Amino acid sequence: MRQTVEIAIVVVACMAIVGNVFAEWKPVGDKIKTRWAAKVTPDNAWQEYPRPQMVRKSWQNLNGLWDYKVRPKDKSPEAKAPEDWAGKILVPFCIESSLSGVGHILLPHEELWYRREVTVAKKSNRVLLHFEALDYECTAWINGKSVGSHKGGNNPFTFDATDAVKDGKNELVVRVWDETVGVQLSGKQVRRPGGIFYTRVSGIWQTVWLETVPAKYIKRIKIDTEHDPAVIKIRTTAAGESVKAGTVQVTASLDGKEVASAKGSLDETVLKIANAKLWTPSEPNLYDLKVDLLDGGKAVDTVDAYAGIRTVGKVKDAAGNWRMTLNGEMIFHLGPLDQGWFPDGLLTPASDEAMFSDIRYLKDAGFNMIRNHIKVCPRRYYYHCDKTGMMVWQDQVSTRFKGPGWTRMRPNPKDGEWPEEAHKQFMAEFKEMIDALYNAPCIVMWIPFNEAWGQHKTMEIGKWNVEYDPSRLVNVASGGNFWPVGHVADHHSYPHPGFPTGDPRFNDYIKIVGEFGGHGFVVDKKHLWNPNAKNWGYGGLPKTREELEGRYLESIKRLKDLVTKGVAGGVYTQTTDIEAEVNGLITYDREVPKLSAKFLAEAHKGVYETAKEQHKK
User: Fold this and answer.
1) Poorest-pLDDT segment among 28-37, 41-50, 70-79, 305-314
2) What is the C-alpha to C-alpha distance for residues 535 and 78, in angstroms, rounded to an integer?
3) CB of 570 within 8 A of CB of 497?
4) How many Å apart are CA 63 and CA 93, to the nearest integer?
5) Beta strands of 255-379 (E only): which ranges?
6) What is the DSSP letter of 276?
7) Which of 149, 196, 235, 462 is most buried (CB neighbours < 10 A)?
């Protein structure tokens, strides 16, 4: 009996501790939320391994409650961390979001500080501190020693913390600045949201984690594939002690059975795959890879990865129109514009499950592609697209700074003029994005610019993009301004699709309607971000769901006609409502599909059938 009482006391005490921790955090604000927000706790916030294309077992997730403080900006390198802290913030949710537990709009004259304790078992290994994304500029210290600084709000980056950490407890402090103005690549973020612009995102907004690696380790792998003959090529970058040359052993498996193995240099290791199962939207086959870094014949580091064997290209049909290909076969691309905002976490979904739900709905709706619109998703997003079979068009995150006037597809456009330092930062972030996402088989197209937003040095950037990644298509400016570079001529047309197919300037390019639709509809005010705002969609709001369905079918009818005139892909705006925009296929809280997946899949069959008929001619 006494033992039972003691156990009960311990359980009650533990519950009290957990209760006190959770009492330091709760979602803030009265805006709508997704159903996954109710499941979020400081203990379960984004605990999944964040880098599926290069997995190690030895890692530590640093998401959870951190101390935070907002104070006036002080950019001096000597600035000291706060002595007192304002409270707790839930990482990885940005400070502006409900799920952060703070809900503060960070202003340009403010800086944001973070602090948490980290326990490290260092031994003789190296310790890497990873940020999946932090907006926009930061410096990090461990035990008062700077471990690095980074500029750019959308891509993963890493600091080597080996010399700063000690065995046992360590103090990690991070300082952040985020102005969201000028040349900063901030996409749709603005200080005053409205129209097609949304609430800003500041600070840590993706997973933070520590990784323990050997003294000599694999820093990066670069995966390329070809489908005929089927090969997987691995280029390996090593780091650490005395890394000048090395041997790499790569093993490929499918469904748990080894199918190929090869040794090679860091520069290249090639696996020939017999009877290969290719990656396509209908059959997204993925080969598991094991990559060993060898030193004296012994594996000193090992990472797990995967590859989808596929080749992206283009070919002319019998009528002389350029069509996109996958594995040598013509394929029509049809998908939504996806902006990736969530009412509770803004650019951070409440959970991995919440993020995947959008992909699953779109797949069920008969789309085979998603255009990630001027934002970069967590790397797990692309993993889900790889597994599900969703092709991705990936935008570079843009800014509207000093962009030229938008001429759409009219001749003789002008380029914006950017300061050289701003251009270098644009290119640094563009290259970071391509490097981080390069191995994802789902990504089939890069888009440096959206319309004329911040468009500058278009020919130079387009040529660089084509040369830097020749394995994918390049759509230099979705929606125009059109310049003769890359592979695509892309027109935006609202609400119904259109394209100047008779213009001979576009004969040497794949013709795409990069945005159309935007048919809005209000299901119920309880699903609106702000019921009192001017909620809107393109072409006015239908009064009934039947009217919405009719408008969608009219857009699809016009798209099918364009396919017969040479158009090779179409992008519907958009996956979900976002704040005052109510032109999503789903409500912002993800509760109500305005158009069912079954309805959409049936409507889309006609587009694919029309495309197949054109491909055969």
Assistant:
1) 70-79
2) 47
3) yes
4) 9
5) 257-265, 269-272, 287-295, 298-307, 312-316, 322-326, 329-330, 333-338, 369-372
6) P
7) 462
> By the 8 A CB rule, do 105 and 179 touch?
no
CA torsion, ordered 340, 342, 345, 350, to nearest 10 deg:
-90
CA neighbor of 442 nearest in space, from 468, 479, 487, 472: 472
- Amino acid in position 78: E
In 3D space, the residue among 574, 335, 283 whose CA is nearest the CA of residue 445 turns out to be 335
CATH architecture of 312-616: Alpha-Beta Barrel (3.20)
Least confident of 11-15, 163-167, 302-306: 11-15
Residues 19-28 have pLDDT tens digits of 454 568 999 9
CA dist., res. 412 & res. 13, Å (int): 73
Beta bridge partners of 176: 112, 138
Whole-angstrom distance, CA of residue 150 vs CA of residue 140: 9
pLDDT tens string 430-477: 999 999 999 999 999 999 999 999 999 999 999 999 999 999 999 999
CA–CA distance, 596 with 572 (Å, rounded to integer): 15
For residue 34 the two structure tokens come to 């997704």
Exposed, middle or buried, 359 (CB in 10 Å: 0-12/13-18/19+)? buried
C-alpha to C-alpha distance for 8 and 306, rounded to whole angstroms: 47
- Token pair of 135 as six digits: 């907006």
Average pLDDT (237-246) is: 77
Q: Is 149 helix (H, G, I), strand (E, B) or coil?
A: strand
Q: Which fold has domain 25-213?
A: Jelly Rolls (2.60.120)
For residue range 493-534, list pLDDT tens digits in order. Answer: 999 999 999 999 999 999 999 999 999 999 999 999 999 988
The CATH code of the domain at 229-307 is: 2.60.40.10
CB contact set of 52 (below 8 Å; sequence gap of 6+) = 306, 379, 380, 383
Q: Give the pair of three-digit tokens for residue 453.
A: 């937003």
The SS3 of residue 157 is strand
CA distances from 246 to 55, 224, 391 (A): 20, 20, 35
- For 129, other C-beta atoms within 10 Å of its C-beta total 24
| Domain extents in the chain | 25-213, 229-307, 312-616
d(CA 19, CA 286): 43
Cβ(209)–Cβ(203) below 8 Å: no
The Cα 512–Cα 563 span in angstroms is 9
The chain-wide mean pLDDT, for the chain, equals 93
Q: How far apart are CA 97 and CA 93, in angstroms?
A: 7
Q: Which of the four pLDDT bands, split at 50, 70 and 90, describes residue 121?
A: confident
Q: Quote the pLDDT of residue 243.
A: 63
* Alpha carbon 443 to its chain's center: 11
